[in-house]
Amino acid sequence: MAEIKKVLDVAGVSKRFGGVEVLSDVSFQVDKGETICVLGPSGSGKSTLLRCINWLERPDAGQIYLNGERIGINGAGIIMSDRDLSQIRTRIGMVFQHFALWPHLTVLQNLMEAPVQVQKRPKAEVRDEALALLAKVGLSEKRDAFPAKLSGGQKQRVGIARALAMRPDLLLFDEPTSALDPELVGEVLVVMRDLAREGMTMVIVTHEMGFAREAATRVLFLDRGRAVETGSPDRFFSNPETERARQFLQRYAGDIANGRR
Amino acid sequence: MIHDFGIVWNERALLLSGLANTAILSTLAAIAALLLGFVLTPALMSKQRAVSRAARVFVDGMRCVPFLLFAYIVYYGFPSFGVRLDNWTSGLAALTIYNAAYMAEILRGAWVVQPREPIEAGIAFGFSEIKLFRRIILPPLLLSAGPVIGNQMIQIIKDSAFLTIIALPELTHAASSIQSRHYVPFAAFITAVFLYWGLCLVIEAGVSSIGRVAEARR
């Protein structure tokens, strides 16, 4: 049997904003090829957790390892320089809620910018790969368009392709469909489902319960900054262990019944 | 009156060399002020209080000094500290330093209203420090601030007229020497005004082409 490789190890991460504890002692691990969906009520710290992984937010306590390498703190135990941190960040792709495409660059240039400028890979090779990625997300004909001319769903598909162009070891999704009109959510979820099937390692913060149930290998339920429950989606959705998770799911079920989701 | 303009026409070589000097001076100062602004703006936005405070003091200080006085200080005042510059160098330095403060403030204003996420995406994708500013932060700033920067360039052209007081042979200086030699003040100065206006039209053409580039991305 092939060895299962741990890609991400989050150990005891805590974060406060002012006096408020947003994350307290959160630990979880992600194996290669896993799709972890992080669920929980708004304000439970999901996005902060995601942003701590690549140190967009600096955790107050705890350790984060990517393929065994500590993020943010170097061998001497001190905080990494921006340059060293940037090196590690190039191995973690990120997809943002509001797409965060670079407005001055075309779609193709958005995909090529970081691989060429930061990873210093040969332009021709990056371009070929970027064109293939655009074909994969169904946007080949938009390669010379500027982001402002795209629909939300198209923007987010570009956002995903841009992250993939980095050839990342890990992909982070921060509520990738929350800013989309309901009819555009599907086209983005299709792309994400394909990635899950292909064995991309992903951590996805989402409110799309249907997607989590179907595509996640595991769910992580956060509540008030704590990792309350983790397990297979089947078990979590049909038979959650904790009262909080049960209440959370009931509220969602209520929303669905009332046509709000 | 026609006769007066005839005199100005006869002195056209002087006037044109003044126009050329104004154009060269303003272009160099605008480029240098913008480049200096590129350094000052990140300093204004710096998270290190000492850096942002120092930049703020400089920018606010410059903006409160009348340009004429500042040009006097650079040309007549600096020699007291052993810094003696010729009129071209001190004129260019005064125009550049003075307007760099405005450029920095213009770019800062454009920066604070930019959405945060694209910059965060730059950081998340491994951009940092100078490369983050140059590749990710600055281009959208230039596109959105383009018209205001163009406006400041027009201001630079007009400020350059003050440099006649340090005997810099620019357009106002040329018009002024024509009028004193032949006593044709209206004809000499109105001709200079139209030449300034022509320069500003060139800037405005440049601004509207930036506008078209920006529009495609909006």
Largest sheet of chain B: none
State the total count of DSSP E strands of chain A. 10
The rounded Rg of chain B comes to 20 Å
Shape of chain A: globular
In the CATH scheme, the class of chain B would be Mainly Alpha
Task: Tell me the series of helices and strands of chain B, N- to C-terminal.
Answer: HHHHHHHHH
Count of separate DSSP helical elements of chain B: 9
Write the layout of secondary structure elements.
The complex is a heterodimer of chains A (261) and B (218).
Chain A: E1 6-17, E2 20-31, E3 35-39, H1 46-53, E4 61-66, E5 69-70, H2 82-89, E6 92-95, H3 107-117, H4 123-136, H5 152-164, E7 170-174, H6 182-198, E8 202-205, H7 209-215, E9 218-223, E10 226-231, H8 233-238, H9 243-257
Parallel strand pairs in A: 3-8, 3-9, 6-7, 7-8
Antiparallel strand pairs in A: 1-2, 1-4, 4-5, 9-10
Helix pairs in contact in A: 3-4, 3-5, 4-5, 5-6
Chain B: H1 2-10, H2 12-44, H3 49-63, H4 67-77, H5 87-112, H6 116-124, H7 129-160, H8 171-182, H9 185-216
Helix pairs in contact in B: 2-3, 2-5, 2-7, 2-8, 3-5, 4-5, 5-7, 7-9, 8-9
Provide structural commentary.
- The complex is a heterodimer of chains A (261) and B (218).
- With 261 residues, chain A is an alpha/beta fold.
- Chain A is 38% helix and 24% strand.
- Chain A is globular and about 55 Å long.
- Chain A starts with 5 loop residues before the first strand and ends with a helix.
- Chain B is mainly alpha-helical and 218 residues long.
- Chain B has one domain: MetI-like fold, CATH 1.10.3720.
- In chain B, 82% of the residues lie in helices and 0% in strands.
- Chain B contains 9 helices and no strands.
- Chain B is flat.
- The interface between A and B is medium-sized, with 31 and 22 residues.
